[in-house]
Fold:
Amino acid sequence: MCSLLLSITCGTLGAVAIHTRKGPDMNSNSDDWISIAETAQVMKVSTKTVRRYIAQGRITAHRMGPRFIRIDRAEIERTLRPITTIGAGR
Structure:
């Protein structure tokens, strides 16, 4: 069974657009979707920062109900990539 996902994105002028698409049922892979609070713990930032990242478009959030927002764990892991430096050790 599929549930309806609403993807929240933010435009350059701050207008929020909500996109709908068919997505996986929340019960099928519940570990793949995490809350804003869980995202904040993984990223070691506040929930306010996570919400700001969503508004800026740095993180894509999916509304799965009127007040039920989830974030794909794989996207968070991609966001937390290491920084490579040139000339390290000088």
User: Anything to note?
Assistant: Residues 3-79 form one domain. The chain has three helices and five strands. Confidence is low (pLDDT under 50) at residues 1-6, 8-24. The radius of gyration is 15 Å.
